[in-house]
Design goal:
By secondary structure, this protein is an all-alpha fold. Helix content is 53%, strand content 0%. It has one helix and no strands. The radius of gyration is 48 Å and the shape is rod-shaped. The model has no long low-confidence stretch (mean pLDDT 87).
């Protein structure tokens, strides 16, 4: 048996075209170091703004505390004035209620004690 080679089994004259195995991808954005530098810069700016905000918040808190400290005498004076007027009205009411009891002194403590005791204010 004799085998004959046909023309279809041979390469074309001059050989086959070269295989293109090289990747030809377009530019897909910045590199890793550029992205890292950008993220670092944005994070540094964010931490800077956070620190400045914390300083501002601390200053506002300090200002609020000092304003409350400076308001304490005024608030105490108003509370003392209100307690004094309440005590006067209580003594007037007590004098009106106990006018028929001989020897009763309005506003006098019922305790036989020489020590000062601040009046208890009970709002009913």
């Amino acid at each position: 048996m004799v085998f004959h080679c046909s023309q279809g089994d041979l390469p074309p004259p001059g050989g086959f075209e070269a295989i293109k195995y090289r990747r030809n991808l377009p530019f897909r954005g910045p590199g890793a170091l550029t992205i890292l530098a950008g993220v670092t810069a944005i994070s540094a700016f964010g931490f800077y703004k956070l620190g400045m905000g914390n300083i501002e918040k601390r200053e506002l808190q300090r200002e609020k505390v000092w304003s409350r400290i400076h308001l304490i005498p005024l608030l105490l004076a108003e509370a003392d004035r209100a307690a004094y007027h309440l005590r006067l009205s209580d003594m007037a009411l007590e004098a009106a209620i106990m006018k028929d009891v001989p020897g009763w002194e309005p506003g006098k403590s019922v305790y036989n004690n020489a020590k000062y005791e601040s009046p208890r204010i009970d709002i009913v």
